[in-house]
Amino acid sequence: MTTYSIALIPGDGIGRDVTAAAWTVLETAARNFGFAVAGTELPWSCRLFKQTGCMMPEDGIETLRGFDAILLGAVGWPAEVPDSVSLHGLLLPIRKAFVQYANIRPHRLLPGVTGPLRAENFDILCIRENTEGEYSGAGGRVHQGTLDEVAVETSIFTRAGVERILRFGFEQARARRGKLASVTKSNAQKYSMVFWDEITRKLAAEYSDVEVTSYHVDALAARMIMAPESLDVVVASNLFGDILTDIGAAIQGGLGYAASANINPDRSAPSMFEPVHGSAPDIAHLGIANPIATIWSGAMMLDHLGEKAAASRVMKAIEATTARGVGTTAGKDTTETITAAIVAAFP
Ligand code: NAD
Ligand code: IPM
Ligand code: MN
Predict the structure, then answer these.
(1) Phi-psi region of 13 (alpha: psi -120 to 50; beta: other; left: phi over 0)
(2) What is the pLDDT of residues 214-255, one digit of tens each?
(3) Is the CB–ligand 1 distance for residue 83 below 6 Å?
(4) What domains does the chain contain, in order, with CATH numbers?
(5) In sequence order, what are the residues at sequence separation of 6 or more whose Cβ sits closer than 8 angstroms to the Cβ of residue 245?
(6) Are 59 and 23 in contact, with CB atoms under 8 Å apart?
(7) What is the 8-class DSSP label of residue 11?
(8) How far does residue 243's CA lie from ligand 3's centre (Å)?
(9) What's the whole-model pTM score?
(10) Cα 131 from Cα 241, distance rounded (Å)
């Protein structure tokens, strides 16, 4: 029997609840489809930082490298550890070190979930560049605390980085409805984003079967709300993708439904699966976090591991659950109730 070794990083706040929920569903899927999942829980979090001064041990990345995949809840407890410390000590280094350059985030309404829009039939796949761009971390501050203080943070766009994410977007579009929206702000950012547009045009010649349109990010943000059915695959830089996918989450009913996969397409290192949302300090300890985003991310993990039938069964179980009104209204059902209903939807 195949056993997949999974690193579990619950992290902070509701990350702990939603990871436990997703793990229960993953174990159920494994039992039903004749494979096993072996989870190793790693307590890397703001809590660990408070005890040790580190978000993860020094050899954390090397420890993770040995796993088949990583399931992460959420990182951040801003009341006690600044986000600029916690995220740069755990989540962001993993995405970069493991070259998880494609962050995939699906946005569609699950059955029974009412979104804020009149539009109901949208199905958008956002592909967010995940290793460079505005998140490169190149910058610094001088004359700190004085009136002469300067802060600089430079976006870095490399030909290799832009080309690989656009190529990934074209391939996804080709496998779906054949439409790609490439997102920049090349009317205002005249170097990096013009460069991105140029590479989009160059690749368009290779993918003549894909209908590609370049949009400015402000217009695309409006389009996601006004005409989401007109979009198929959306490819954007790291920061634009971050913002657009919270819009995507909003139009699909909320952050409790937005799944995400940080993929290393070359499979040279493990990929990482996590919900789009954070640790939700405002509802942590209440037991009402919606686990669906993380369970859906778990289905994306099974798909990536090659367990396609199990992945689509998990999606069917989620859909059967929301279709009967469980997990569809914020705060009505507990994390436990939603998880139990999804498990019960397996044959
Ligand atoms: P958040 O996503 O944690 O919460 C935003 C709002 O959405 C809150 O009102 C919250 O209650 C609600 N929400 C989020 N997930 C939910 C769920 N599953 N069910 C029901 N409601 C849910 O964003 P924030 O408040 O800006 O960030 C809190 C912390 O999380 C910060 O430290 C932030 O940096 C971090 N964060 C981490 C990640 C990550 O680890 N991937 C992502 C986003 C934010
Ligand atoms: C996300 C989150 C992270 C990001 C934060 C927590 C650094 O918002 O995964 O969407 O911006 O990538
Ligand atoms: Mn985000």
Answers:
(1) left
(2) 999 999 999 999 999 999 999 999 999 999 999 999 999 999
(3) yes
(4) 1-102+261-347 (3.40.718.10), 116-251 (3.40.718.10)
(5) 105, 107, 126, 128, 258, 260, 276
(6) no
(7) E
(8) 6
(9) 0.98
(10) 12
